[in-house]
Amino acid sequence: METTFTAGFIGLGLIGGSIARALKKYYPDVQILAHTRSRHTTEYALEHGIIDEICDTVDERYHKCDYIFLCAPVECNASYLGLLKPYLKKGCILTDVGSTKTNIHKKVEELGLEEYFIGGHPMAGSEKTGIENAKALLLENAYYVLTPAAKVTGEMVERYRDLVASLKAIPLILTYEKHDYVTAAISHLPHIIASSLVNLVKDCDYEDGTMKKVAAGGFKDITRIASSSPEMWEQICSANSENILSVLDEYINSLIEIKFSLAEHNTHCIHDLFETSRDYRNSISDSGSGPIPKAYSIYCDMVDEAGGIAALATILATNGISIKNIGIVHNREFEEAVLHVEFYEEMAKIKAAELLRKYRYTIYER
Ligand SMILES: NC(=O)c1ccc[n+]([C@@H]2O[C@H](COP(=O)([O-])OP(=O)(O)OC[C@H]3O[C@@H](n4cnc5c(N)ncnc54)[C@H](O)[C@@H]3O)[C@@H](O)[C@H]2O)c1
Ligand SMILES: O=C(O)C(=O)C[C@]1(C(=O)O)C=C[C@@H](O)C=C1
Fold first, then answer.
1. 224 is in which domain, residue-wise?
2. What are the tens digits of pLDDT across the range 162-219?
3. Are 54 and 46 in contact, with CB atoms under 8 Å apart?
4. For residue 193, which ligand has an atom nearest its CA?
5. Which of 112, 121, 102 is nearest to 160 (CA)?
6. Which of 20, 86, 114, 188 could form a disulfide linkage to 151, CB 3.0–4.6 angstroms apart?
């Protein structure tokens, strides 16, 4: 694998910035140039050593590039293809990071760029935006979907797959059609559900905001992504509307079934709903879902007496369970302060919870 090459970026926010940072981390000699909508972003990137050159326009400097990453919102990405076309050097891999693929593949076909284009989509991210939140670690252990266009050579696919793997992501080749159906179900619909749920609570809340005040783990877990960028999600929903409509229909039908079960007091169906979802959700690995390592934690009601923490730590230590972190937390999820204990691995957490319950501690697992 070449260690000196040139990469060009269009758009350099959370995802583009994270890829550029990862390239710099694993290929210190890489040359990176970038064009973004606002100069503030490229100036920040230059100051922080994330890029080497600012391009205020898309011009012949892009002819130096071995890779070009389109990292703006999905419809903007497609609109840059025509501008880049005159500057593509032979063998350059033109790629994007967009959350939808059909729209950009269609534009690639229309412009005759199929020998250059390999769609890309890192299945990692966050509700945060902007280069300030970008980190190389974001890609680690995350699936990275690749959708090669029909005229791209096998050698180019291999080269790009190797590059993605060298950034510690996990490459996965799909057709662009399959990608868009899959992401409609596991990413686009969930974002719509999260946002509509938040807005429902906003509209149903009392004037004094009681719902907002008492909203705890359940609501917060399922709605974190409702804080995502409206600009980005408007474009995703518009570009993948057909697939989203299809899974949304399925989802509405399933809600109607749940509604009937509730109205008819069909407890068997309601039990089945939670049992099936629990089993399927528990079978999904959390290990390949991005940079945030899974925390193996328990929370424990504090015994109101001197030496409470020491007593608990002694029970764990004498049973050979190592503690990674321990501390008192005060938050709205628990009525009183609780002790947060973090372990290095899942088995230690399970053993500790069992053991402490035997000693009559009240344990919460989150
Ligand atoms: N955020 C996520 O979780 C996530 C995950 C995977 C893929 N994606 C995809 O990555 C892409 C970028 O998302 P992000 O989260 O990095 O967003 P972001 O808002 O952090 O960054 C977007 C970048 O694009 C630039 N930009 C916007 N319009 C532009 C234009 N017309 N011309 C040039 N630059 C322009 C912005 O200046 C910014 O640098 C999107 O296509 C999105 O679908 C996002
Ligand atoms: O973790 C998040 O905040 C995300 O929304 C990441 C997420 C997703 O999982 O839906 C969002 C959009 C992308 O295209 C890929 C990943």
1. 180-263
2. 999 999 999 999 999 999 999 999 999 999 999 999 999 999 999 999 999 999 999 9
3. yes
4. 2
5. 121
6. 114
Tens-digit pLDDT profile for residues 61-78? 999 999 999 999 999 999
Give the number of other CB atoms < 10 A from CB of residue 315: 16
Domain contains 187: yes
Please report which confidence band the pLDDT of residue 289 belongs to, taking 50, 70 and 90 as the band edges: low
CB contact at 8 A, 235 and 74: yes
Residue 257 has pLDDT above 80, yes or no: yes
Number of Cβ within a 10 Å radius of residue 254: 11
pTM of the model: 0.83
Angle at 135 between CA 134 and CA 141, to 5 degrees: 125
Cβ 8 vs Cβ 62: under 8 Å:
yes
Residue-level length of the chain? 366
User: pLDDT digit string (tens) for 308-328?
Assistant: 888 888 999 999 998 988 888
pLDDT tens column, 275-284: 999 999 999 9
Q: Which atom of ligand 1 is nearest to the CA of 98?
A: 41
First to last CA, the chain: 43
CA distance 230 to 244: 17
Q: Does any domain span residue 117?
A: yes
Q: Point out the ligand nearest to the CA of residue 189.
A: 2
Q: Indicate the DSSP class of residue 226.
A: G
Q: In the structure, which protein residues have their CB atom closer than 6 angstroms to any atom of ligand 2?
A: 99, 123, 125-127, 187, 225, 228
Supply the residue whose CA is at minimum distance from atom 13 of ligand 2. Answer: 99
Whether the predicted pLDDT of 304 surpasses 70: no
- Note whether 240 and 304 are same-domain residues: no
Residues 191, 161 within the same domain: no
Rounded to two decimals, the ipTM of the complex is 0.98
CB–CB of 295/349 below 8 Å?
no
One domain, residues 111 and 227: no
SS3 label, residue 333: coil
Q: Assess whether 200 and 169 both reside in one domain.
A: no
Considering its fold, how many domains does the chain have in total?
3
Measured by CA distance, the residue closest to atom 19 of ligand 1 is: 129
